[in-house]
Amino acid sequence: MPHIVVKSYKEFTSPVKSDGYEFLWFAKEFKNAKDTLVAVRFEEHQFLLAIKPKDEHYIIKGDKITRIAPTYILKGALKHFCELADCEILYDNLSSIKPIHVDKAKSFLKEIDYFIEHFPTKKEVWIEIGFGSGRHLLYQAKNNPDIQFIGIEIHKPSIEQLLKQIALQDIHNLLVIDYDARLFLEFVPSNIVGKIFVHFPVPWDKKPHRRVISKKFIQEAERALKPDGVLELRTDSRAYFDYALELFLEREKSKLEVTKNIEPPVSSKYEDRWVRLGKDIYDIRMYALQESPPLELNFDFTFSKISSLERFIKNFDIKPKVFDDYFVHFEKLYMIEDGKFLAEVSFGSFDRPTHLYLILSEGSAQYYPKKPIASQANIKAHKKIEEFLNV
């Protein structure tokens, strides 16, 4: 992850612009926080830099919650911030700032708002979750030009490698997003997806709640798939295979295809490694059996007038609030300026939580850097958050 280690820096007056980057405000530690955050806007992107003290120096890097891709945007923000803040730099790993091939393909990298507002529905959609090196996804996109592909990945080097190949191979039917696939699937329109590929997901044997495959995921996949559409799991983990197969068989009706060590038309570098090591490769394909009802989730996540900000700040409670099928957890509180605060909050579903910030001022609150997606758990959590701000 791009970062800069500095011995010192100077806070500057904001907002200020530098070569397309606008540094909007500083958020300083207030309650349960040990770092300083800096709000940045670049083109349509909004994100935070985090300044973390360590020993006798500071590490400046991208904030995890508002992570930004491609990475060159973050590298540029770090570079320009340090120029403005007169940083005494001890070390950085920025290397080149703007790879030309990634820049050429940046229009194929979309924010979540694009899919919420303009989900591509004119063509059949195929989705690959955790595409890694991108070898399988690129092969499928090139050999199925009439299909709209969506690649979902949170590993930024993998995203940038794929964008580079999109540009080099002149591919036009592939969109990319850096997002939690479990949340993404909840607002994919019903009956438009032909295939969902989940190839070699992280097994998460010690944290099974973090696995991509779950009862909820299978339910959402079946809704998004058109009749006879396929959810395909490919894994080298026998434990993951057994776990997933049990979930598939728990459904009242299931049409499954199970295979072992069947060579695919194209293999990933990970699969090549597992095969060299003599590991078995397992496949489960679940077929959608019927048409699903349309997805109807409309909610704008705006707050009504906030009446108890002073009380909320004074009694800021970091203990998680757990309810039947959702939770709300206020984690950190920062001061932006007098009367204006930034609260870090996680909420929604237990196994696929949403992590965002709230900008709070007298009488108002808004999510930063964007609103949550309209899942049932997020809608319930939002209403509860509003209650807490008005108690």
UniProtKB/TrEMBL annotation:
GO cellular component: tRNA methyltransferase complex
Pfam families documented for this protein: Methyltransf_4 (PF02390)
KW Ribonucleoprotein (keyword) present: no
EC number(s) recorded for this UniProt protein: 2.1.1.33
Membrane-spanning segments: none
Positions contributing to S-adenosyl-L-methionine binding: E128, E153, D180
Superkingdom classification of source: Bacteria
Keywords: Methyltransferase, S-adenosyl-L-methionine, Transferase, tRNA processing
MF annotations from Gene Ontology: tRNA (guanine(46)-N7)-methyltransferase activity
Enzyme class (EC, first level): transferase
Residues binding substrate, per UniProt: K206, D236
The protein's annotated pathway: tRNA modification; N(7)-methylguanine-tRNA biosynthesis
InterPro entries: SAM-dependent_MTases_sf, tRNA_(Gua-N-7)_MeTrfase_Trmb, tRNA_methyltr_TrmB_bact
Catalytic reaction annotation: guanosine(46) in tRNA + S-adenosyl-L-methionine = N(7)-methylguanosine(46) in tRNA + S-adenosyl-L-homocysteine
Similarity field: Belongs to the class I-like SAM-binding methyltransferase superfamily. TrmB family.
Task performed by this protein: Catalyzes the formation of N(7)-methylguanine at position 46 (m7G46) in tRNA.
NCBIfam families: PRK14121.1, tRNA (guanosine(46)-N7)-methyltransferase TrmB
Protein name: tRNA (guanine-N(7)-)-methyltransferase
